[in-house]
Amino acid sequence: MSAEYVPLAIIMFVFTYPSRAVGLLAPAIDRLPRQVLAYLQLVGPAVLAALAAVDIMVGVENGESYFTIGLPWLSVGACIALVWWRKNLFLGLAAAIAIAIVGRALGFA
Amino acid sequence: MVEGPARVDLVTTLAPPPPPDLASVRRKLVLDGLGIVVSAVGFGFVYGLTARTVAGFSPIDVMAMSVFAFAGAAQFAAVGYVASGVPWAVIGILTGLLNARHVLYSAALAPWFRGRSFGERAVAAHVLTDEAFALSIAHFRRLGRFDAFGYWFAAIGVTFIPWFFATLAGVLIGDAIVDPERLGIDVIFPAAMAGLAVGLITGRRELVAAVVGATVGVLVSLAVSTTVGVIAGGVVGPAVGLLVPAATAGETAPIGGEASADHYGMQGYVDRPEADKP
Lengths: 109, 278
Prior knowledge:
The structure holds 2 protein chains of 2 kinds.
Chain A: H1 6-25, H2 34-57, E1 58-61, E2 64-67, H3 71-86, H4 89-105
Helix pairs in contact in A: 3-4
Chain B: E1 11-12, H1 22-55, H2 59-69, H3 72-84, H4 88-98, H5 102-109, H6 118-126, H7 130-143, H8 148-172, H9 185-200, H10 204-223, H11 226-241, H12 258-263, E2 269-270
Antiparallel strand pairs in B: 1-2
Helix pairs in contact in B: 1-3, 1-7, 1-8, 1-9, 2-8, 3-4, 3-9, 7-8, 10-11
């Protein structure tokens, strides 16, 4: 059985653990400039939104990027609406999957 | 209050509540935790499935990710990075950026962990996730003090264990999935990323950061590449989000003020001089 990506998991640990530990192990975190902390707080939403948008709006073929519209827009839109409304990620994911399954069964791309 | 940007004191002053009933507070934690278990199992299962079908991860790879990285969004994102051929060093940096919000969680939890051993805090840091933070800080707030059972139950009992076994289950039956698109597997990743982003939006700054991050990400992806696009969105989005005036941002600062204390569920939190500390 392959263990090809175990080193990658360790790399991810190396880049993740400091942010988790800095406050608990180094009280000096409370001396960082507020603007730095404010910036860090916004990184999560920005990166996650960028990942989602690029995934459903940008296709890549032969190294060329192109704009794309399709059923995933509806799935992701429904997920966003449900998570916003019900505060339940699992429900949002279930709706996104259901829309994709039904949509493709009906012949939508 | 100490003036200047380089000094923000974290102090928790707890208003004298009636003596909390530990059993009932823990019962509430367990009930809240059940919802997290369902979410962790569902999300973990589709992660394992996606890792197998999209990036070719083996069960060992997935288990290593869940043990060492233990970061749902970052693990999901890494599947996309690997499938896109992003270099591992860049994946590490992106993972660090994606998980940068944990700095805030860690800082917000620090006052509650005062007096605990270095070893306990070091291990607690590794299992600090969105879910563990949300559950445990609400539990401490209800109880009015630190409760080791509460933290470990939130971090390991309802998050790590369900996540680990669900990801393993997902990767083990990955081979049985013949056509991922027919089962909607391909929309799970973007839907999960978008859903997690929505969960992190608690004010206008986060909203602006997310919208700008997505827009910049798409535009730069079309002009350059998807990898550069995601990085650009993650860097530019927060910078533009900071331009939202504090008065209209919905909160005044990530930590250090009453609005942010409420954001993190730290009731009675105040920012005041050292001499006033309890």
